[in-house]
Amino acid sequence: GEDVEQSLFLSVREGDSSVINCTYTDSSSTYLYWYKQEPGAGLQLLTYIFSNMDMKQDQRLTVLLNKKDKHLSLRIADTQTGDSAIYFCADNAGNMLTFGGGTRLMVKP
Amino acid sequence: SQTIHQWPATLVQPVGSPLSLECTVEGTSNPNLYWYRQAAGRGLQLLFYSVGIGQISSEVPQNLSASRPQDRQFILSSKKLLLSDSGFYLCAWSVSRTDTQYFGPGTRLTVL
User: Fold this and answer.
1) pLDDT tens digits, B39-49
2) Cβ B92–A101 below 8 Å, yes or no?
3) Which of A20, B61, B67, B93 could form an S-S bond across to B31 if both were Cys, CB 3.0 to 4.6 Å?
4) Is A106 in the B-facing interface, judged by CB distances under 8 Å?
5) Chain A contacts of B90, Cβ < 8 Å?
6) pLDDT tens by residue, A49-69
7) How far, in Å, CA of A91 to CA of B108, rounded?
8) Chains A and B: how many Cβ contacts under 8 Å?
9) What is the spatial distance between Cα B22 and Cα B45, in angstroms, rounded to a whole number?
């Protein structure tokens, strides 16, 4: 089955850029997603990218998709303390969405 | 617009007691519904999903069960809770199984 992997933890300083990475194994996805989970809350859809795109930019967020390497990344520019959360990537290659294990982003003031 | 509710928000139960968590969706018909469990800020474990009334698929064998008595209602149950059932339970819905999933606010369950 599909396997989606993320690093567990990322720490950055406020104002720096954050890059959260994700790798997947099945190249048949049509959509790839990024979700954000704040403490004690459900997952919030942050952004998504069509599999025929290489990049998508939405204000401070930039999603990059490298289909050859099966690598997805989320770049957050000018990271703020409010960006501290767990970020999940997901794809729909299987018969339903497959989620990565989540990356905890800690933003230091 | 569509909204998803979970009830209760927080629950503390003794070992061996029964459990019933409810999830309801508004603003859509015939949604696909999902129950996930998340342990202590970790990843998501898919427990059950449902593509229609009375249709439940179990992903992980355990002492939990799910039911879908109405189109937009999904219930997670247990007859006897275990300590290992503690966690954060998330309900989600989607238009189809390969579509975007939208999550509820979650229920924090502590089994003592």
Assistant:
1) 876 789 999 99
2) no
3) B93
4) no
5) 42-43
6) 999 999 999 999 999 999 999
7) 26
8) 50
9) 18
